[in-house]
């Protein structure tokens, strides 16, 4: 376990790879499902634009999310993406010793630091497959944050392992932003009410391609939801985002997301099999990967990333995640045609001298 104030750039995210001079690149850096949002969802959101003169009313969307998880509405809070939820948690909860389990999405730690907290890091090890050992978390931690499946490692932790972290007086925050990309969601904690202090975050931006719309939600005990809601500004979620939330938890959308999860799993298998061809060049994939992305270690990764840009492909650098070095890259799962093109480009880059 490490306590650090400096180090990796916690504000660097995958979209930095495809802004400005990277806008024309094939995007394997951002973990948003390609070819989204679907036409039916765009049309549904567009239909809400006629109501923009009226202040947003989130009651229907909140009820729809609650029904999707079998919860009362008092356990649901809609947010402007999961990122807003991290800020609300950092500002609203009175905690003494927050701990973030890394490597993972860096925004939770950044939000906690911005709110004035001193943050401890528990760094999972490559030698252990980046899998969680609950005993590594300090017993006196009163806030613990972990992703599942974890970005960027693509590790899916067993639900029972995560719930072993629960303690009286501790808030256990589980970021499930990518859980709907896992077929069947076998390790999901969303909807559980028997785990003390559990807070589950979900995002609708990844599977549905709504990063520009900003919509997500928090599932937690009613008193926690009330604390977070008091920290929100009035009307925090726009009318189009509310329309999207209601649509994305409807039965039709859930069936489409389940189908997409199986397709992503097959496409990920194709990517991992292709990467295995470069084992002699030192390419290693964290396995088993369960999310819509894979984490790869390879020699001279920074140089490889720059060469790939020259060949038209953007990938996510790994060294901005605490616990990872410059030897790591994260790759989003794409369709087989895109993956095959990327693998050909990767073959050219790893064959070049450093």
What is the structural class? alpha/beta
How far apart, in Å, are the first and last alpha carbons? 34 Å
Q: Round the mean pLDDT to the nearest integer and report it.
A: 95
Strand order of the largest sheet: 1-5-4-6-7-8-9-3
Q: The CATH topology of the largest domain is what?
A: Aspartate Aminotransferase, domain 2
Write down the domain tally.
Answer: 2
Residue windows where pLDDT falls under 50 for at least 5 positions: 1-5
CATH architectural designation of the largest domain: 3-Layer(aba) Sandwich
Could you give a short account of the major beta sheet? 8 strands, mixed
Number of helices: 11
Name the beta content range: 15-25%
Q: What is the CATH class of the largest domain?
A: Alpha Beta
Number of strands: 13
Encode the helix/strand succession as letters: EEHHEHEHEEHEEHEHHHEEHEEH
Estimate the global geometry from the Cα principal axes: globular
Can you offer a commentary on this structure?
By secondary structure, this protein is of the alpha/beta class. The chain is 34% helix and 16% strand. It has an 8-stranded mixed β-sheet with strand order 1-5-4-6-7-8-9-3, with helices on both faces. Strands 2-12-13-11-10 form a 5-stranded mixed β-sheet. Strand 6, helix 5 (159-163) and strand 7 (171-175) form a beta-alpha-beta unit. Mean pLDDT is 95; it is low at 1-5.
